[in-house]
Design brief:
- The protein has 116 residues and is mainly alpha-helical.
- It has a domain of 58 residues.
- The N and C termini lie far apart (105 Å).
């Protein structure tokens, strides 16, 4: 092989090596940029998810407070109603309570005897 051809081949090989190195550096930078963008995207998504969860929890808490208040008021109304009826007819209320107690006792005793 002539010296001129050898120098040209060596020069082309050097250019190819330099181009391969530049391509590798470019690929490395591109990968680093993509990884950084993905990290930022994941962080943003995590923040949005956290905000949505906090908002949903606050909404749920507010709704449950409303339901609790409503249930408490209804329970108070029911207690007043029962107290008034007992004051109006104490003997009837006592007999009704006794009857319900006996009925529950019989039901519980019957279910225990079936389980044995």
């Amino acid at each position: 092989m002539p010296a001129n051809a050898l120098n040209t081949a060596q020069s082309e090989a050097d250019k190819a090596t330099a181009a391969a190195g530049a391509a590798a550096e470019h690929a490395e930078r591109s990968f680093a940029e993509a990884a950084s963008a993905a990290k930022a995207s994941f962080a943003d998504a995590a923040k949005r998810l956290e905000k949505n969860l906090v908002d949903s929890f606050d909404t749920l808490r507010a709704q449950s407070r409303t339901y609790t208040d409503t249930a408490g008021q209804q329970l108070e109304d029911a207690q007043k109603y029962v107290s008034e009826r007992v004051r109006e007819r104490p003997i009837t209320a006592t007999l009704a309570g006794l009857g319900v107690g006996v009925l529950l006792g019989l039901l519980l005793a019957g279910s225990r005897s079936h389980n044995k």
